[in-house]
Each structure stands twice: as C-alpha cells, then as structure tokens.
C-alpha cells in the first residue's frame, strides 16, 4: 500500500510539472505573437517615409518625358491634348482617360477595362488555350494584353495592327483559314509567327468595343471549326459581362 501511494505521488508530481511546463510554453508563444503585432503596428519614422516618397518621385520623373508644351484651361475646366501626343499614345476620340493626382501633379492615363481584370483575363486566356489547343490572345484597343500557348512571346505586350483595329470597330467576328483561301489578319505589325488559321471576336459591352479575343494556329492546313468559334465567342461574352 505504501509503495502504491509513493508511486501515485510521483505520477501526480510529474503530471503537475508537465502541466506547468505546457502553460509556460503557451505564455511564451502568446508573448512572442504580441511582440510581432507590436512591431507590425509600429509606425515608420516620418523622415524615412519622406525619403521613400522622394525616391519614388525621382524615379517617376526620370521615366516621364518633358514635352515643353503648355496649354491653358478654359472656363469650363477643359484642356486640349496636342494632336502629336494623341497620335503617339494612340489616343482616339471617345477614349476614356484615368486621372491621377499626387500633391501638385496631375496625370492622365489611358483607361483599359480589360487590363483591370488582370488575373481573371490571364486565367481565361490560359483556359481558352488549353481547351482549344491553339494560341489564345486577349487584347484591348491598344495592345495585346495576354497570350497563352505556343508562340505567345511573339504577341505579348505588343501594339495591335491597324487591320485588327478595323475588325474591332466593325464589332463582327472574323474567321479565316488559309487552307480555304481566307485572308489572315496580322494581330501585330511585327509578329514572326506564320498564322494559318484564326478567329477574332470583339469584346463588346454597353455598345463599346473594349478589345478582342482571338485563337490562332500555325499548323499547316489547320482549320478553325465551329466548336472553336463558339468557344471564342463564349469567352468574349464572359469578359463583356464583367462590365454590364
């Protein structure tokens, strides 16, 4: 009986010691988390923030080019963008511009609705390429934004051709197979890929053309079948519905 009592005391002592160690470990972990939160909430010195802003401002000024052109604002708050700049930046009548301000600076940037759906549009391009087995391309009214499939490097981030612009203005789908005598429309002016079949479907939302979805093939004798055309049109409709 005495031996059993001593054994019970030892077990209880070990249990209490283990519980004490566990509670101490939990306390240390909590204190460590609190310390991390304090460091996160700790504000950076004002001078450090100012230095970072100044560096960012200097880099931006280095990228920006001075035109030497000065324009006055009229009584309605309007200002005319010179024709030369509009031609260089491909700004057309009716194009939306996004306005940014930074203290005493005012910046205008061409607004691309398709570009705002960056992850969605990029994923859609990849899915379209995987389903069709062709090179898939999505563009806005200025440049190729996303490309997925063999030969994508020839198209990504390049300005679109004037022929593609005309197709988007007409707001009609375009299908061409070289094997059947169709005229292939170049998507860019300097693409090296030899296209043998293509589909171009404009993305139209609210009466405005926002860009286009295209499937391309470089295989000899390739033809774009009705299923590929439907898939391309469905993709264009899905993108257009994001802005309705």
Structure overview:
The chain is of the alpha+beta class. It has 2 domains: 69-111, Ribbon (Pemi-like Protein 1, Chain: D), CATH 2.10.260.10; 114-241, GAF domain (Beta-Lactamase, 2-Layer Sandwich). The protein has helices at 2-41, 46-63, 83-88, 113-116, 118-132, 162-170, 226-241; strands spanning 97-102, 105-110, 135-139, 144-148, 174-177, 197-205, 208-217. The strands form 2 sheets. A 5-stranded antiparallel beta sheet has the order 4-3-7-6-5, with helices on both faces. Strand 3 (135-139) and strand 4 form a beta hairpin. Helix 5 (118-132) runs antiparallel to helix 7. The radius of gyration is 31 Å and the shape is flat. The N and C termini lie far apart (84 Å). 22% of the residues are buried. The model has no long low-confidence stretch (mean pLDDT 82).
For this entry, give a set of tags.
Beta-Lactamase; 244 residues; flat; alpha+beta; Pemi-like Protein 1, Chain: D; 7 strands; two-stranded antiparallel sheet; five-stranded antiparallel β-sheet
